[in-house]
Write a structure and sequence with these properties.
Amino acid/polyamine transporter I; globular; mainly alpha
Length: 425
């Protein structure tokens, strides 16, 4: 026991007695978390959230911050509860055993990797459409275009995790400006839109049913669980015993930025378009940007929309790559093979390049279903696993008895049951 205490003291020997002031690195992580969460899904959120009517949207807006903050804080605390340098797959094995660790690692990989494939297809489609319709040039063959785009993103990946986070944080700035520009541009076109349903107070059963099916949309529009493990490991390396306090500060600021930006964009869209128009956009399988470009026939939006989509998809790709590669490396290690770190990085990058390139070239329509199938797994890892650990793991016992634990568990169960119901229906 004394040896263990001494090792802990040595681990945090260089950690300051008090928490240091906010640093540039903290800002970089805050924007990196924002960049992973706010991506292509945000461009469909106004359609999905607005179709439920005014009152469900207001309730979802009020729930947005606690839903996302408490869940991601719980997952961060879970990773921080492990040994120094342990990622999420190592912490699961440490707390729940080798078999559980292997199972969670497998589920973690297959929950995130399909989303990476979806972004590969979406990125190729966006650039191809932009070249054809806005630049009026013939795009190269799909196989070549997909290969160049994915290789370009993986070139950023090869520079290391810190470069990925920094690149994502830099890409956040134009994305924030673009979202603000669109939201403000729509203000003169507000015509009440969804307010037409404000006088129609739904019956309690109908309201609950609408919220039940809409919560997963809200949850996964703000999801940045793939980068949480790397975030927690870096916080522990930088702040030691103060890692939980500083990571909570970074998470709270990141989520306030997410919620404020996205909800302003969502409300601006739904106040501009009627429920019938939102339903039309969903029937046409268009993002809100594409629908607005067609609706207004405005060259500025028509040109800006694909550029915004490109930035959104690219930064989300980078954030999800961190989680997917982490899961794949964990699977390789758990087979008993332990290649050198550089060799493992190269193997992972090569696998990701080949599979993403093949899928982006084939452009299969089944990817939406794969994303939905990964939803319950993501909800289980993000919402339920950390809450279970708080109940069972001594290292997390200090977090027991908090009301937020009940709230996160309830939202997780709602998200999972709604997704399963949608699949069955």
């Amino acid at each position: 026991m004394n040896d263990q205490a001494n090792s802990v003291d040595e681990r945090y020997a260089t950690t300051p007695a008090t928490l240091t002031s906010w640093s540039r690195q903290d800002t970089t992580w805050m924007l990196g978390l924002f960049g992973t969460a706010i991506g292509a899904g945000t461009l469909f959120l106004p359609i999905n959230a607005g179709l439920g009517g005014f009152w469900p949207l207001v309730i979802l807006a009020l729930l947005a911050f606690p839903m996302t903050f408490f869940a991601h804080r719980g997952l961060t605390r879970f990773v921080l509860s492990g040994r120094e340098g342990s990622d999420i797959t190592d912490v699961v094995e440490e707390h729940f055993g080798i078999k559980a660790g292997a199972l969670i690692t497998l589920l973690y990989f297959f929950a995130i990797f399909p989303i990476l494939l979806i972004y590969s297809v979406a990125l190729t489609n966006t650039v191809s459409s932009f070249m054809e319709h806005q630049l009026h040039i013939m795009p190269p063959p799909r196989a070549i275009l997909a290969f160049v785009l994915i290789l370009g993103l993986l070139a950023v990946v090869r520079c290391g995790e810190q470069v990925i986070v920094k690149a994502m944080s830099l890409m956040v700035y134009p994305f924030i400006v673009a979202l603000l520009f669109l939201a403000v541009y729509l203000v003169p076109h507000w015509n009440g839109g969804i307010l037409s349903t404000a006088s129609e107070v739904p019956a309690p059963s109908a309201l609950l049913n609408t919220l039940w099916l809409a919560i997963p949309v809200m949850v996964f529009s703000f999801n940045h669980s793939p980068i949480i493990s790397a975030f927690a490991v870096d916080q522990k390396r930088q702040y030691g015993v103060h890692a939980e306090e500083r990571s909570s500060q970074i998470l709270s600021r990141a989520h306030l930025l997410m919620v404020a930006m996205v909800l302003f964009f969502v409300f601006s869209c739904v106040l501009t378009l009627s429920p019938a128009q939102l339903a039309e956009a969903k029937a046409q399988n268009l993002s809100i940007l594409s629908y607005l470009a067609n609706h207004f026939d405005n060259p500025t939006i028509a040109f800006a929309a694909p550029l915004i989509a490109f930035v959104a998809i690219a930064k989300s790709f980078l954030g999800h790559y961190i989680g997917a590669s982490e899961g794949l490396k964990g699977l390789v290690v758990k087979t008993g093979r332990r290649p050198a770190p550089k060799t493992l990085d190269r193997m992972t990058a090569a696998f990701m390049l080949v599979v993403c390139w093949i899928v982006a070239t084939l452009n299969p329509s089944i990817l939406g279903m794969i994303e939905t199938l990964g939803g319950p797994v993501i909800a289980s890892i993000l919402f339920l696993m950390p809450m279970y650990a708080i109940r069972k793991v001594p290292a997390m016992a200090k977090y027991r008895g908090q009301a937020s634990n009940v709230f996160v568990t309830a939202v997780g169960l709602v998200a999972i049951t709604a997704l399963v119901y949608s699949l069955i229906a």
